[in-house]
Amino acid sequence: MSQLLVRPVEHSDVARCIDIRIECLGSLVIGKLPLFRGYREEQKASLHHDIDHKPHVHNWLVVDVKSGEIVAYANWVMYQGGRSNVKEAGKPAIKTLKIVDEHWRLRQAAHDYFQILSKLATTANHRRRGAASLLIQHCLKGADASELPCYLEGSEEGKRLYEKHGFKEVSAKEFDLAEYGLHGVCKLTEMVRESTKPVGMETTRAGFTASS
C-alpha cells in the first residue's frame, strides 16, 4: 500500500479539495444536500481566500505518495483567544438562500445548531487507509502544543472515529429530515477533547472544529 503524506492545501489543490467535500458531504452534512446554484464556485473562492488571508483557518490534505492523488481533506480553526460569536456572522447569507435553494429551511436549522461548521472528508475508494486519522492527529498535535481543547460536531460515522482519538460526547441532536422534505433522521454529536497540558495550567476557551 502506498505511503500517505499530510501537507497544507495549496491554491492548485483547491478544486480537488472542494470536490472531495462535495462527494462526501454534499453541500451540508445534515442530509447531504445537493448543490444550489453557484455553491461550488462559492466554496472554491472561500478556500482560496482562507489560504491567503486567514492563518487561523487551517486547511490540510492527505496525498497518496505513489499516485500523487489527493485522498482526504480537512479544515479546522485554531482560536488562541477563544471562539467568537460566529452564530451571528452567517445570518445574512442564510437569508439569500431562500432565493436559490429549496432546502434553505434545513440550512437555517443547521446554522442555528452549529457554532462552526468545518470539514473532514475522505474519498470513497481510499477510506479505511488511515487518512482521516492522520489529519485528526495532525490537528491534535497543534492543539496540544498550544494547550488548547478541541471541539467538534460529528456525524454518527465521524463520532466513532473521533472517540478513538480521545473525544468525548457532550450532547447530541437529531434532525428529522422529513420536516424538511427529505427522508430519515440525522444525528450529530457535540464532542470535546481536552488538551494535554502541564498540571496546574489553566485551559483557555479555544480549540478547533470539524465535521464529517
UniProtKB/TrEMBL annotation:
Q: What is this protein called?
A: Acyl-CoA N-acyltransferase
Q: Looking at the keywords, is Transferase present?
A: yes
| A Pfam family annotated for this UniProt entry | Acetyltransf_7
Q: Which residue windows are coiled coil?
A: none
Q: Which UniProt keywords apply?
A: Acyltransferase, Transferase
Q: List the Gene Ontology MF annotations in alphabetical order.
A: acyltransferase activity, transferring groups other than amino-acyl groups
Q: Which residues form the N-acetyltransferase domain?
A: 4-192
Q: State the taxonomy lineage.
A: Eukaryota, Fungi, Dikarya, Ascomycota, Pezizomycotina
Native source species: Ophiobolus disseminans
State which residue ranges cross the membrane. Answer: none
Gene3D superfamilies referenced in this protein's UniProt entry, alphabetically: 3.40.630.30
Keyword Electron transport: yes or no?
Answer: no
